[in-house]
């Protein structure tokens, strides 16, 4: 014997009704089946409006609804006949007309009295449910099935009020057995309906359809109850909180009880009690996706090795604190509160804290606050009046995250709390359940969604996620996106790292897609978009979408973007940048960025600020962190000037060398930016600050390649390039002079004792590690207590889109460490 329930989704659609009949037929081959059938969802909603309009005497709206209901029924019949030509159309048409006339008469009386008594309300919905049963009966008769219909008003005895009754299963079982239904018959019954002792029609309240199905399973001693609805089953998280939540194939009764507290849509405690008492397996299946496995609730669940079944949450929780030095002398205080919560059907959590004073905290839904506050005052009236207890303190805007599973252990607890702590979500309280099937955590209401997602990732996702928002799609940004595109599959498969590019922006436009931007055609999409780039909008977007590990990647040279790093960090972004402007801004801003990054546990990474793809910052920090001290530093920090001065060695003039460097892309579009030495000065300042020197950019002494007044005098770049020939002889003589001493000219940045920083053209000998550096290479020589007299030298290309983008990419991956 199997009991199946078909919800309002399937009964309002011809194809789904036919599918429901087919499911019944297939199950009937294995034994007798019972189908509990709901009225169509649309009909139920319209009937509710019908009653409302009748009471308000809104005739115009009523006639509109009237036509819509008749239209739904007539269209349903026509669709059914198209699929099942042998269906007894005339009988159904007349039956529907008759039943609908009954509804109209009832509604007319409601209009006259401007009131709808509960028992009248129940009778209207019984008629609509009975219609669904008769339609399904006729579909099954086409295939020569014998049908028996149970009248729930006569057979299911219930007690309570008209809109929320509880069924007497023992008496209902006795009544059903009196009919002696043949074993070959398919049994049908309208859902959510029962009868009281006066044979009046009553409703079964929330989850009434599912409740009546479970009751029938108990009455027929069935060990299986299938609920056919429009969802695949129960998920291990709210899909609107975690889009990639997983379907649970099975859960235990105790796990279901814990979930009910956080999601009453699953089923009710009234239902689960019957399932446990009669040991009924309860399956949830999708009528629109019959291939889906669904979710099974039974006495035992053995899904996967993970003992965690789901993460659920409640918003708008309020804490009531009862405290006082004499509370421990109040006999049975905790028991009284527990008893009070259960008697009032209030969802509540209790936490007893034993510190210097004795505290009891009660956590309840905001809607229950006034009721429980008043009840507490009455329950402990003597204690409050005689100052044995302090006044009740109330804290609002809280939420509860509950992790559900039949065997939560210490290791899982550690994962859960580490995930929250590492992302600065404060655990206000921990509420443990005696059944050991859940652990509930109190946090701020505003942190619920992020908390759920963080715990979900730590428990269910075996890869780490980086969510990228790129600003700047010039040479470096463009190359970075190509590198991500080529490498992302390898990283996900081999390293369990998932890279998602959610945002791409240039100085004007912004492209965002929180399903992940397609890197095959991002240029086309960015050009096509009409969205204007706004830093503030991006900050608001990650809050709106609750992004957990967002990374701003700045591949611009923009001061405006650099000035917003503090905002990015404080709003949850990591910042990865090749832009040197932030690290060379004022000392106060330099410190502010780092202070915020540390306080919010976000990364600020800028390896490419010095030496492009060379691991300069990382190695310097490693030295200092291990107790080494820098004595002095010298280095070639400009790829363009490395190239130019290398060409001077080979006999080229300064004008020729600069022209070649510009044509090959080594210099900025305006070579004066390189020749001024300011770029090297910025890099030198970053190194000096890393070492600990509190310096500003104007503290760096800069000797430019050419006098600044000469470079600034000519506005046109092309005219400036032609004027360079005026300095050919000057540099030819300087190079010759250096060569006579066995030296070469190099553009060097140095840091001496006390933090003296200089950028200038220098003569270096063959023993100097900078002697052979040319062709765009960088070289950095660190002389320290550990590394002397031979310095630690880092050497390699310090310019170029590929190496710079690779350095940015490496920093992106370091946000996970």
From TrEMBL:
Pathway stated in the Swiss-Prot or TrEMBL entry: Amino-acid biosynthesis; L-methionine biosynthesis via de novo pathway; L-homoserine from L-aspartate: step 3/3; Amino-acid biosynthesis; L-lysine biosynthesis via DAP pathway; (S)-tetrahydrodipicolinate from L-aspartate: step 1/4; Amino-acid biosynthesis; L-threonine biosynthesis; L-threonine from L-aspartate: step 3/5; Amino-acid biosynthesis; L-threonine biosynthesis; L-threonine from L-aspartate: step 1/5
Keywords, comma-separated and alphabetical: Amino-acid biosynthesis, ATP-binding, Kinase, Lysine biosynthesis, Metal-binding, Methionine biosynthesis, Multifunctional enzyme, NAD, NADP, Nucleotide-binding, Oxidoreductase, Sodium, Threonine biosynthesis, Transferase
MF (Gene Ontology): aspartate kinase activity; ATP binding; homoserine dehydrogenase activity; metal ion binding; NADP binding
Domain Aspartate/homoserine dehydrogenase NAD-binding: 472-607
Domain Homoserine dehydrogenase catalytic positions: 615-813
Names of required cofactors: a metal cation
Domain of life: Bacteria
Job of this protein: Bifunctional aspartate kinase and homoserine dehydrogenase that catalyzes the first and the third steps toward the synthesis of lysine, methionine and threonine from aspartate.
Protein name as annotated: Bifunctional aspartokinase/homoserine dehydrogenase
Organism annotation: Candidatus Pantoea edessiphila
């Amino acid at each position: 014997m199997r009991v199946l329930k078909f919800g309002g989704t399937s009964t309002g659609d011809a194809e789904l009704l036919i599918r429901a009949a087919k499911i019944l037929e297939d199950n009937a081959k294995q034994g007798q089946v019972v189908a509990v059938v709901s009225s169509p969802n649309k009909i139920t909603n319209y009937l509710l409006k019908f009653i409302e309009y009748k009471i308000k005497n809104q005739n115009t709206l009523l006639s509109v609804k009237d036509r819509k209901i008749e239209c739904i029924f007539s269209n349903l019949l026509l669709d059914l006949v198209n699929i099942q030509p042998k269906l007894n159309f005339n009988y159904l048409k007349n039956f529907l007309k008759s039943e609908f006339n009954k509804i109209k008469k009832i509604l007319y009386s409601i209009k006259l009295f401007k009131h709808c008594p509960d028992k009248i309300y129940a009778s209207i919905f019984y008629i609509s449910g009975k219609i669904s049963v008769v339609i399904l009966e006729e579909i099954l008769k086409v295939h020569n099935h014998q049908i028996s219909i149970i009248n729930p008003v006569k057979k299911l005895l219930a007690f309570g009020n008209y809109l929320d009754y509880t069924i007497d299963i023992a008496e209902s079982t006795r009544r059903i057995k009196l009919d002696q239904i043949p074993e070959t018959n398919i049994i049908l019954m309208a859902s959510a309906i029962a009868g009281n002792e006066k044979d009046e029609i009553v409703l079964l309240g929330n989850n009434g359809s599912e409740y009546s199905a479970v009751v029938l399973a108990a009455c027929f001693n069935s060990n299986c109850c299938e609920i056919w609805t429009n969802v695949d089953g129960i998920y291990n998280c709210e899909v609107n909180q975690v889009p990639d939540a997983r379907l649970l194939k099975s859960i235990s009764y105790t796990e279901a009880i814990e979930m009910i507290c956080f999601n009453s849509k699953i089923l009710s405690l009234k239902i689960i009690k019957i399932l446990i008492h009669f040991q009924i397996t309860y399956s949830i299946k999708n009528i629109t996706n019959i291939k889906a496995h669904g979710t099974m609730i039974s006495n035992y669940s053995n899904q996967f090795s993970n003992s965690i079944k789901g993460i659920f949450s409640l918003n708008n929780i309020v804490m009531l604190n009862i405290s006082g030095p004499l509370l421990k002398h109040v006999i049975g205080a905790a028991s009284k509160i527990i008893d009070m919560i259960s008697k009032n059907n209030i969802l509540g959590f209790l936490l007893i804290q034993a510190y210097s004073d004795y505290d009891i905290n009660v956590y309840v839904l905001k809607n229950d606050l006034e009721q429980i506050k008043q009840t507490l005052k009455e329950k402990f009236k003597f204690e409050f009046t005689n100052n044995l207890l302090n006044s009740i303190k109330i804290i609002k805007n809280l939420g509860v995250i509950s992790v559900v599973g039949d065997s939560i252990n210490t290791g899982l607890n550690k994962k859960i709390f580490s995930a929250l702590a590492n992302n600065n979500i404060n655990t206000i309280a921990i509420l443990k359940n005696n059944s050991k099937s859940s652990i509930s955590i109190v946090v701020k209401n505003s942190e619920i969604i992020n908390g759920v997602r963080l715990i979900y990732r730590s428990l269910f996702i075996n890869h780490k996620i980086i969510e990228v928002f790129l600003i700047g799609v010039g040479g470096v940004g463009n190359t970075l996106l190509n590198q991500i595109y080529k490498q992302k599959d390898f990283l996900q498969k081999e390293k369990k790292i998932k890279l998602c590019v959610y945002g791409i922006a240039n100085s004007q436009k912004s492209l965002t897609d929180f399903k992940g931007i397609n890197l095959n055609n991002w240029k086309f999409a960015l050009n096509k978009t009409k969205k204007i780039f706004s830093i503030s909008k991006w900050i608001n977007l990650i809050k709106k979408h609750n992004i957990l590990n967002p990374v701003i990647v700045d591949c611009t040279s923009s001061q405006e973007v650099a000035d917003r790093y503090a905002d990015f960090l404080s709003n949850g972004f990591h910042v990865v940048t090749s832009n040197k402007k932030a690290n060379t801004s004022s000392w106060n801003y330099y410190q502010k960025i780092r202070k915020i990054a540390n306080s919010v546990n976000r990364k600020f990474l800028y390896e490419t600020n010095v030496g492009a793809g060379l691991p300069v910052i990382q190695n310097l920090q490693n030295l200092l962190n291990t107790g080494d001290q820098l004595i002095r530093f010298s280095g070639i920090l400009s790829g363009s000037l490395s190239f130019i001065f290398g060409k001077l060695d080979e006999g080229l003039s300064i004008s020729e060398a600069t022209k070649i460097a510009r044509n090959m892309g080594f210099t900025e579009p305006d070579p004066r930016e390189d020749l001024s030495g300011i770029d090297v000065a910025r890099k030198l300042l970053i190194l000096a600050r890393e070492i600990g020197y509190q310096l500003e950019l104007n503290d760096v002494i800069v000797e430019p390649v050419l006098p600044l007044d000469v470079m600034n005098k000519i506005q046109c770049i092309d005219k400036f390039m032609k004027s360079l020939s005026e300095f050919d002889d000057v540099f030819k003589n300087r190079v010759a002079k250096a060569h006579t001493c066995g030296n070469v000219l190099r553009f060097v940045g140095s840091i001496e004792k006390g933090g003296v920083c200089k950028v200038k053209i220098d003569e270096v000998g063959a023993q100097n590690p900078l002697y052979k550096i040319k062709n765009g290479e960088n070289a950095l020589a660190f002389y320290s207590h550990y590394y002397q007299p031979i310095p630690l030298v880092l050497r390699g290309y310090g310019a170029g889109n590929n190496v710079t983008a690779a350095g940015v990419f490496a920093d992106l991956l370091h946000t996970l460490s």
